[in-house]
């Protein structure tokens, strides 16, 4: 399953990596790719969307599915 989440507030590549790492720690995520220019995170796997949004927000960003 593929999920796209809107992420607001990323201003550099370091933040992309921070969000990717936060998402990859969630159970059920098989891959996570973040594009700051598009303001999106693409997540593969069977993770709960609420858990994904919470992980991004815990990393310091605003997110919504």
UniProtKB/TrEMBL annotation:
GO molecular function: metal ion binding
InterPro entries: HMA_dom, HMA_dom_sf
Gene3D superfamilies the UniProt entry points to: 3.30.70.100
Taxonomy, superkingdom: Archaea
The name this protein goes by in its record: Heavy metal transporter
Start and end residues of each HMA domain: 1-64
Origin species: Halobaculum saliterrae
């Amino acid at each position: 399953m593929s999920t796209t989440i809107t992420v607001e507030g990323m201003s550099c590549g370091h933040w992309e990596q921070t969000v990717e790492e936060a998402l990859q720690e969630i159970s059920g995520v098989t891959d996570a790719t973040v594009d700051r220019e598009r303001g999106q995170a693409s997540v593969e796997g069977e993770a709960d969307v609420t858990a994904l949004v919470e992980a991004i927000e815990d990393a310091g960003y605003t997110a919504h599915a």
